Request: fold
Amino acid sequence: MTKVNTHTKLLFLNIILIMKNIKTFKVASLLLLIVFISSCSDDFLEVEDLDEIDISTVYQSEEDLNLALNNLYFALPILDIEDPLFSVDANQAYIVPYFWTDDAIHRNIANTADNQGSDFNWSDSRRSLRTFYRYHDIANINFFLEALPGATFETEANRDRFEAEARFLRAWIYESMVLAYGDVPLVTTTLSPTDNPTKTPREEVFEFVISELDEIDDILPESYSGDDVGRITKGAALALKSRAYLNAIGWNSDVDAMYAGAEAACSEIINEIGIYSLVDGIDGFKEQFTPDSDLTSPETILETIYVLGINVSRIALQVSPRDLYKGPNGSGNNQRRAGFTSDFIEEVQTINGLFPKDDPEYDPANPWENRDPRLEASAYLPLDEFLGTDGVNNDIFQPHPFYEDTRDWVSANNNNPTGYNFKKYTDYYMLNNIEGNADLKIIRYSEILLMYAEALAGQGRDAEALTYLDQVRERVGMPKYADIGLPTITRGTTGNTMIDAILLERRYEFAGEGPQRWFDIWRYKLGSQVIGNVYGIPDDVDLPGDLTGPKYDANDLTTYQRVWDDNYYLLPFFVTFTDDNPNLTQNPGY
Reply:
């Protein structure tokens, strides 16, 4: 008989009993309590030692396993720009790695405790760098997989699907850890409290991820219906496989095989599954970051579904400008913690497909006109209008401290210091004081098209790659490179002009949305080329698009200086992890 003797397992069992499916929850715990009270009769006051709970009475039926599987979906990242600093069991905040790039900065860059690592003052005590170390999730998944064969299933095919979903979630975690940490312990069975596993070589963990995805992609359905919409699909498994292959380019010795593997996975999604597509126009692009596309968008391949009160989506609070209308339930105390750098803003092309510095039609007095439409869709820009707190009149976003009617939005506390703020996932009608109702889009179809283009370009097949790159540009009305020629990248070049153009497109497409830019910098080792000082909006209030003059520096600092170190291509293991496991050796340089 196996007995539970940890609070973690007890909490886990309690959670699974309140989960019914991905989007709908039944209060099964209440029913369980009623049954318990009824069965106790006169023995109601008898107390059972929690250490004596018998695991053999749970994980026995298909319903048990369905509830448990739904709980495992918490291993997917949440829609948050911050890793909760004081959480014992922190969620994976998907957007945090975007601050480790040249495109973004967190407002608290001068506060090393909670700036999400955006100052590049990294050490093994930086909490924000721990987000990919997910062994509490691995333990739950392994426990589930070991219980699965002994359970009774009315629909036997569901046993295989449940196993495939759980193995996908485990592969997801290990793929993230391989990129972030390199060598990590590969644990595929439940461990005793005294076990201290050693690191497994990075390539071996990577091969495990690929083999898992190879084995499960044909088991997973291409789509679901009803309450099961949102579960892991074959497309998600293939998409993760493609990511894994491309992310391994920076360290795997067989680069050709990595490109070929990514190509095969993307090709199957595009040419064989064939159920995904881009939603037309810039409005279709914008829709992906609102509840309008939740569970219905043909672009969505993998997402974390927002469930009220369960997986809090704090980004609505974190990105919404102060004085933005938020409906009857929203709070006015928004904090605008995330911001874009001037490097990113000034490198977003004009509608002519040129960098602003190269376009004679670019007007620094009206810099937001005739730009790639995704800039306006992704960023709050100086002089943007939005619906004010009265729900009737428009307000103006004015971050420049030198305007007469300024609110000092840049230098005041709780504000992003650059003057360019994140816009994706803004919610005008927040459900409560902190969260908005939108699903986190983890992998969209546009990423498949761009990964396919990159895989082809990496094998020297530029003409084929161009077709898929231009599909993403055409959707938002940008000129095709087939018509205007590839851009010349002078900052952050891989040495391959086609891949440079693809990485540039990824910057535009996924700005403020997720870790894609982090992937790109890490796998092509661009850190020393692109990471440096951070600047904000131009000092000249009459030329908000000034490309050559001085730029605003928050807190009277000359610059926000960030210094790159090649050690950063591997994250440090958080000091608590190495303290708990003496066999977990720290990565070099920390």
